[in-house]
From TrEMBL:
Residues 92-196 form the Remorin C-terminal domain. Keywords: Coiled coil. InterPro entries: Remorin_C (IPR005516), Remorin_N (IPR005518). This is Remorin. Residues 17-36, 60-84 are annotated as: Disordered. The lineage of its organism: Eukaryota, Viridiplantae, Streptophyta, Embryophyta, Tracheophyta.
Amino acid sequence: MGAKKVEFETTPVVVASAPSKEKEAPAVEKLSSDEPQEKSLVLVTDEKVLNSKTLAVVAKVSDPAAEKKKDPPAEKKPIDRDTALARVETEKRMALIKAWEESEKTKADNKAYKKLSAIGAWENSKKASVDAQLKKIEENIEKKKAQYAEKMNNKAAEIHKAAEEKRAMVEAQRGEVVFKVEEAASKFRSSGTTPKRFFGCFSC
């Protein structure tokens, strides 16, 4: 157990004359364990004066455990209550701020999602249009390519035909010359003469 706090109270006490010259002997009242609240200790002094007034010192012993059980000062309760109210208000304000923050973030996310969806749809539409144009151009190119190919083939056929005609003409001319040479040679053989010019016909 902790040390007990001792408070002293002075009370004037009238004491009868006592001729004794002995030293001061304090009379201590035994403290009972059943009474922990307050006990008195009376000290009596004799100064050889008849009918003199002396002071009796009363020791007031208090229990620390009982003091701890006492109510706190009246000033502390309002402070604690104000602190608790302030804390509650702060928590409420923080909760409102958090809810507002989440709401604004959600709004921003939804707005951005709508815009991104619109951009995606626009992109897909433009890509589809470009793909259609490219396909149309490719079809036109293929069509023109076929037309050009046919035209070139016709030209090639015409060139080949012209070349064949020229070849035929050359062959015909050659045939005529050969026929003339053979006919002239036959005449020379039958007449026994010789030609005056050799290969004259080839110089024509």
